[in-house]
Amino acid sequence: MASAEELINLGFSLHQDGKLEEAADAYNAALSIDKNNAEVYNLIGVLKLQQNKISEAIHCIEKAIEKSPQEYFYETLFQAYIRNSDYEKIISKEKIVNESFPENFSLFFNIALAYKNLGNNKKSIEFYDKALHINPMSYDAWFNLAHLYSVEAETKNALSALKICKKLRPNDDETEYFLSLAYMRLKDYKNGLHYFEKRLCRETAIATQNKTYPNKLRKDNIWNGKNIKDKTLFVYYEAGFGDVIMFSRYLSLAAKKCKKLIFMCQKQLLPLFRVNPQLGFNTIIDSFVPESQIDFDVHCPLLSLPYVLGLSGDDVFVSREGYLQYDKSLAEEYKTKFFNNDKIKIGIKWQGNTYYDLDRVIPTELFIPLINVDNTQFYSFQTFEGSEETSKLSNIIDIGKDLIDFSQTAAALSNLDLVICNDTSLAHLAGAMHIPCWIMLPYEVNWRWHSDLSVCDWYESIRLFRQKSLGNWKSVFDDILNEMKHD
User: Fold this and answer.
1) Which residues pair with 232 in a beta bridge?
2) Which is higher by pLDDT, 195 or 354?
3) Yes or no: is domain 4-159 CATH 1.25.40.10?
4) Rounded to whole angstroms, how far apart are CA atoms 80 and 84?
5) Tens digits of per-residue pLDDT, 429-456?
């Protein structure tokens, strides 16, 4: 009859060969001989993790620790807890790790990760710092730390951490992209726009247009800022509606550099840009045009314009007093239909594209105290996804259901005294039209609003209100209600 040690060795060999069921049989046979063998319990736990039987794995590893609290057993246990999202259980081991395993990078790293997932950023930063004292060459720890610093608006610390990431991975596109966001949040656009060229949406936009114009959209004819006064420039959209509205301010500058400018935007934005010829494009398109019918010499994704134009410092914030017009006849129609009253007219929106970001979705019922302020008439500008929430609000006019494109939205906005909304395309449109707008920001603020939220550098008419703590929208509404009552 085989001994426990022989069975363990057999199980381990089978385990390494990927024969998990046979390995489990050998391990269990060893336990029938030696019921207190902590090593076997841990090995079974590892095997169960490989089989994605997480709860069984946790039970076995906890048994191993109960019999012999080995350091590497805790490493395995923490991996199992993470797989099961048992972050509180990791936190519960904090004292043990601090006292018994003060030099274990993995354990401190995973405690930091647990705090991060529980939304306790301060404690997470503390434990990433401890982990980095043990292993200062960990890219993942520095990268995660940079993200937490960014969330907490400690942008200079985030930048420092990302610079270390850059040294550890000199040619990593993701590192350089996040480095760009940190630089731009600090308004260092000389460095920020340089690294911003590594953004994924730029490559996606180029690849998409390359499929349409394979013979014209070559790598060697991307505009690099050189003289194109006798050439035709093709600028095409990337990212979302808000980004396109925001960066369209640079079209007029690009138009002055070339003989002719062709601009491609999303279908929903085409009617808006058509009433804005002052942006300088000669031709605007929103859909497929055969390669034989389009002619250009150089091309550029829209969000690359400020970089290619060589803008830096405050020169980046061109036309912050407004640069988009609206269809005046359509605005009059909306005025007659929706805005024919003497009250303070306020448009609201609470949700953008939830595919990208849930943090910017605002509970609709929080608007109720604002709607009840005297002498106000509120209008819902929520369209499509999220518009079903309008039914939760009374004494509000739902104009969103009538809005199909951004030209209609702009015409309706022109009748408002104020817009109150989440960080979404409506805010960019209001700012670009120089309409007063209060943007409600989540705790993790997008790079474009910078570190000093007392001013909006991009739009003169915009004010910014940020959550005081993670997920706390009520504090934002309290601030806005206080402003409404004092204005």
Assistant:
1) 260
2) 195
3) yes
4) 6
5) 999 999 999 999 999 999 999 999 989 9
Specify the DSSP element, H or E, that contains 13.
Answer: helix 4-16
Short-list 150, 250, 237, 205, CA closest to 458 = 250
What stretch(es) of the chain map to CATH 3.40.50.2000? 328-486
CA 5 to CA 40: how far, in whole Å? 10
Identity of the amino acid at 222 = I
Q: Which CATH architecture has domain 328-486?
A: 3-Layer(aba) Sandwich (3.40)
Residue intervals of the chain classified under CATH 1.25.40.10 are 4-159
**Count of residues in the chain:** 487
What pTM did the predictor assign?
A: 0.91
Cα–Cα distance measured from residue 319 to residue 316, given in angstroms and rounded to the nearest whole number: 9
Q: For 314, what's the count of Cα atoms within 13 Å in the CB-facing half-sphere?
A: 3
245-263 residues labelled b (16+ CB within 10 A) or e (exposed): bbbbbbbbbbbebbebbbb
* Structural contact between residues 463 and 453, judged by C-beta atoms closer than 8 angstroms: no
**Distance in angstroms (rounded) separating the CA atoms of residues 324 and 410:** 9
In the predicted model, is pLDDT for residue 389 greater than 90? no
DSSP secondary structure of 170-228: TT-HHHHHHHHHHHHHTT-HHHHHHHHTT-HHHHHHHHHHHHH-TTT--GGGB--SS-E
